[in-house]
């Protein structure tokens, strides 16, 4: 994959987290309406430790990260594009359930657009995996940011040539309660 395509996503994450950290250092007034939770807090570290040594358990009826990992980058002309298995390609435009960890892209306690990751974030400036372990999410209504895994239902798009280097997008997503 062309590293330059993934750079905008990384920059958005770094800028968002850096701005939140700056606001927290400046005190409550500066941080008002910004990210309410510090990714380096004890709460975040406990959540990271709980999930860091093992993947989230697979759940019946929930799309697994193992399935989403069935992709390989192939060179086409001057760039790399994802080549998906038939099983993954068949998921395009289908409603799916997926669980993962929220990485905010915008400021604020509630997020309507974020990255869902297979692994918990362990660093404010690092992405926890490659593009096969991330899904861009656009929700119907804002979702409260937290460190625990969330379960979402939405329409999956399998992206064959995304300018940001992403492989997956979940739209019209809603929080789902596990059964």
Primary descriptors:
alpha+beta; 7 strands; 5 helices; OB fold (Dihydrolipoamide Acetyltransferase, E2P); two-stranded antiparallel sheet; 179 residues
What does it look like?
This protein is α+β, with helices and mostly antiparallel strands and 179 residues long. It is built from five helices and seven strands. The model is unreliable at 10-36 (pLDDT under 50). 25% of the residues are buried. It has one domain (3-175): OB fold (Dihydrolipoamide Acetyltransferase, E2P) (Beta Barrel). It has a five-stranded mixed β-barrel. The longest helix is centred in the N-terminal third of the chain and has 24 residues, at 3-26. A hairpin with a 2-residue loop joins β1 and β2 (79-84). The protein starts with a helix and ends with a strand. The chain has helices spanning 3-26, 28-31, 42-52, 65-68, 86-89; strands at 71-76, 79-84, 94-104, 110-117, 134-144, 150-158, 168-175.
Residue share in helix: 25-40%
Q: Which CATH architecture is right?
A: Beta Barrel
Strand order of the largest sheet: 3-4-5-7-6
Q: What does the average pLDDT come to?
A: 79
**CATH uppermost class:** Mainly Beta
In total, how many domains does the architecture comprise? 1
CATH topology: OB fold (Dihydrolipoamide Acetyltransferase, E2P)
Q: DSSP helix count?
A: 5
Gyration radius over CA: 16 Å
End-to-end separation: 37 Å
- Structural class estimated from helices and strands: alpha+beta
Give the biggest sheet: 5 strands, mixed, barrel
């Amino acid at each position: 994959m062309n590293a330059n395509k993934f750079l905008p996503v990384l920059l958005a994450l770094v800028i968002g987290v850096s701005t939140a950290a700056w606001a927290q250092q400046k005190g409550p007034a500066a941080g008002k309406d910004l990210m309410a939770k510090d990714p380096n807090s004890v709460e975040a570290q406990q959540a990271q430790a709980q999930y860091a040594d093992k993947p989230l358990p697979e759940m019946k009826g929930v799309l697994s990260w193992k399935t989403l990992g069935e992709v390989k980058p192939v060179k086409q002309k001057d760039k790399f594009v994802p080549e998906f298995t038939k099983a993954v390609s068949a998921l395009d435009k289908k409603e799916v359930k997926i669980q993962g960890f929220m990485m905010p892209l915008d400021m604020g306690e509630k997020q309507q657009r974020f990255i869902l990751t297979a692994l918990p974030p362990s660093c404010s400036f690092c992405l926890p995996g490659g593009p096969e372990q991330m899904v861009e999410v656009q929700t119907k209504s804002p979702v409260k940011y937290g460190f625990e895994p969330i379960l979402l239902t939405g329409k999956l798009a399998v992206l064959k040539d995304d300018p940001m280097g992403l492989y997956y997008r979940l739209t019209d997503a809603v929080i789902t309660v596990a059964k």
